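Researcher: We're reviewing a set of sequences before deciding which ones to prioritize for further study. For each one, I'd like a predicted 3D structure that I can look through quickly. This is KIB1-4 beta-propeller domain-containing protein. If possible, include the structure in token form so it fits the rest of the review sheet.
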Amino acid sequence: MSRFLPKWCPDVPTLLPALSSSCRFLSKKKSPIMIVLTGASCPAFAFSRLGLHGDSDWRKSDCRIVDPHCSRGRWMRFSNGIWFQDRFYALSVEGTLAVVEEDVNSDLLRITKFGKQRAVPDSDLAATRRFRECLVESEGKVVLVFLGSARSMETVDHVEVFRLELKELAWVRARSLGGAALFLGSNTCVSVEGKKLLECKGNCVYFAASGNGGGWGVYDVESGVISSCERDFGGRTDLFQGNTTTLLCKLQRRAD
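Model: Here's the predicted structure for KIB1-4 beta-propeller domain-containing protein, in token form for your review sheet.
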């Protein structure tokens, strides 16, 4: 991947990189775009087109827009985001949704829309900020999952799932994920068909827990119950060690 990208400036922080599409789709007409959120306002993000006809340098974009949900009136700073249907949906540290699109006239990425609704958990976790947010595409929808730690920072004991209504740019609580199973790691979030992985259930969120030796937990969306993956898989602790990719490879081998 690095051979397609310009050299990064060491003075600019990096928080989250996101690629618009797979590198196998590299072409003259539509090259994938790598966007990097910095966690700052200036620049708020940098981007570069990949491929032979890509950019020779990173293009940086500032955001001097006051975050409507910031009580201190600070400029927006983005902490998370996801590409979906040629647009990048970015979440600010205060839970404001911004839509980033390509300007066909200037060939730049610009913020074009904002969601009015704040993306935060419905529970008291919003005030304590003892939660982390995960964005993932699942069954043609953008899904936002909050993993909260109400009692201990070492254990996830509260999960909330929302889907994005694109027309209204509003977050709606998801009562079902259908047959999908979400796997949320520390750096990677993936949606798969639950029935394709042996013993995995659809309509569930599997997440990497910070405690318990780095194991995994599972949240059943229908019942609202959180349990240990090791317990559900007959005490197989060896299965649930490692990152998201490692876990999915192990489960796929069991299914085969």
